[in-house]
Amino acid sequence: MKDQEFIEVYGARVHNLKNIDVKIPREKLVVITGLSGSGKSSLAFDTIYAEGQRRYIETFSAYARQFLGGLERPDVDKIDGLSPVISIEQKTTNKSPRSTVGTITEIYDFLRLLFARAADAYSYNTNQKMVSYSDEQIKQLILKDFDNKKIAVLAPLIKSRKGHYRELFEQISKQGFLRVRVDGKIQEIEKGMKLDRYKMHDIEVVIDRLAINNSVEKRLDETIKTALYSGNNIMMVIDVDDNNPRYFSRELMCPTTGIAYPNPEPNTFSFNSPKGACNACNGLGITNEINLKKVIPDNTISIKSGGIVPLGEQKSSWIFKQIQNIAERYKFKLTDAIKDIPKEALDIILNGGNESFEIESKVVGVRRNYKIDFEGIVAFINNQYNNAESTSIKRWAKGFMDEVTCATCNGKRLKKEALHFKITDKNISDLVQMDITELASWFATIEKDLSEKQLLIASEILKEISIRIQFLLDVGLDYLTLDRTSKSLSGGEAQRIRLATQIGSQLVGVLYILDEPSIGLHQRDNEKLIDSLIKLRDIGNSVLVVEHDQDMIEKADFVFDIGPGAGKHGGEIVSAGTFAELKKQRTLTADYITGKKKIEVPTKRREGNGKTIKLKGASGNNLKNVSVAFPLGKMICVTGVSGSGKSTLINETLYPILNAHIYRGVKKPMPYKKIEGLEHVDKVIDIDQSPIGRTPRSNPATYTKTFDEIRSLFAKTAEAAIRGYKPGRFSFNVKGGRCETCQGGGVRVIEMNFLPDVQVECETCQGKRFNRETLEIRYKGKSISDVLNMTIEDATDFFIKIPKIHRKLKTIKDVGLGYITLGQQSTTLSGGEAQRIKLAAELSKRDTGNTFYILDEPTTGLHFEDIRVLMEVLNELANKGNTVLIIEHNLDVVKLADYVIDVGMEGGKKGGTILCTGTPEEVAKHKKSYTAKFLKKLLL
Questions:
Q1: Residue 231: φ, ψ to 5°
Q2: Predicted structure pTM score
């Protein structure tokens, strides 16, 4: 083989990599596998991708580079044969409510172009097809249809608007026009002429009156031009005998009512542009509306006792004085229950009012004037929400509101004009609400329904759209709709959408690096994903995948196994070769693949504690009014193909209900009818994969609060007590004990102007983060800096005599993270590691035995061995009587569950039902379930 057929990495030392050399075959599907934390991402992303990106940015001019921010050179001797690199990671979705599946994949951009160029416009008044003419066409139509007739040519100026329009008549008169048509009657303009300002009016100016014959062509030309100019591209012709108007327009216009649309352009169909977005919701499809039940939750309480929640209990404020005036006027007391207050009075309190009245004082007998000038509680809350600068006030106001579908556009995000452009009876909103399968079949049959002219314009656009839809089908996303917001996508879905977009771009000679693309994918869809990656490879790209999935490893052309352990015990290549060669090795990965090692199926399932939580009538997103029971005291696994409704059922419905019940959480659950059995749990914990900290100052010790205990311990040493040091002295985030040169960071950033910023070890503290005096305080011969550099494993033994610290560290070690250091920056932890640290933080707390744990795909980023360790920890939780609910596709987890809830059948609209429930053995016997099919191979 020629050398250029490899990407060669020499001396990689990023994070825990141990000066390794790697030769990666080009134009092949290559998988990097190994334990979580062994250095897979360090090699793929932090070395190869980082260097590729840095080389790309170095091609820019020095001037451009200073705005991009530099990229550090990875710690590697050299990399040869590197192609342009594109990374497809999990964390790169846009959280904006304006970003949708359609906009990410660019299919929506093509749809906008298609509708702007090939759609027919219809009137929203009469549903007639809109027409538009050129000046020449208008002239020919007038000559033909009004031959030998007397006509008046008019320009419409005002349509159904109130006003006296005196200035308008003066302006028309100054321009030299003598007559106007007001509300259907032609009259001469008089001096000082004005109309009734409180009535609706239609006003047209008479441009010319003429008898039509062949000799008036030239005059008619001039008249048409003037009329269209004055009437903003619309004109009107009236047959003087029968007074019937006929409209003509250069733009799209309704032939009966004369309403006109501006000529369509792609922005007309964009909900992110003022030209297309619905004015009521600004193109979001939802508006915030005040829910009076939240303002007055209990109408048996009086206003004085705080019955109107936003006002609280009575106090001496301007609002309460106004309410007192309203009470005087409508003869009720503030101590009366709200339900007994007269309806008109309550209406003024809520919606405002403005009136003056007199009341006679009973004591003195004098009449006094009172004035009610009150904006109303509803308007007050709305003002605070729309105009307050403070986020906390906005949040307070939003607490009394519900997100409701916009009443103007019915959640379709666009103006009504845009929704009346149609292709074969479908508008653009109808198309984005179809799932990808439906959309594909619509586009497959559309060509035969288009006219020749439409086909000529649209054929290229249709080709582009069909190709992109096919790529989404290929990566197993057939259940998505184009109007689905990107923030509601799971990490795996978002990554596969980006993959589909990349396949769509048809680049060649690129190195693609993917981070576990099989996350969140059911085994059924895995095949499609692998085929997509093989397609990418076959058109001439190199594909490098960081992956634990056995199917992916089997289909790879070449596999690198990194290990042997994790953290400082890893960072070496333990095996490199084809799948057949990997199976012959004696590595952990090979042992699990060949079956020498495996996660055993339990011989007996837990009985649970006999109590259940019953959720009835859940109907959020695609759930079809489902009812499901969650038996407590068991390990429950929720399975089903991607998009079947698992996350909607658990994360969007069950968790918010439990959270609101136990902790008064504010997140609104998706619609459901009823829930029973909440009294059986007293704690709910949701453990997801979001990072534990976004700054280099956050680390496992600070996140688990272990560092607080360690600082207190150092402050209690004899030397610290003599010097008067408090725990704050041992923090690298506050002045006092930290090194001020690097402000406790341990490194200094040196700005290089045209080159990337360089991080160098702080010369004052040599990277120890603290000043000399602080480092002189020692516990068992170790300074605070030495403790931060210890691995969790070493620290567990070191603090064995301090139960508080030892317990927390032992749980981190038990979840398989003994290899990380106490002070390791959170930003360098993988998703799986971050989730396990969260899990450890929860495990170290005292549990009640009635806790409900929810984990969403905890096996993300985990090797077979890591899954075994994780499941031991979760089993321990369930053994203590807690309920552990896991949303998962990984069959090694499903087979260990006591109770499985399978959601299906398909994803999207064809999903949302509960297919089967029971023990894994019972579920495996189900005839139709996809999960059962794959589970059967493992169990039966």
A1: -95, 15
A2: 0.77
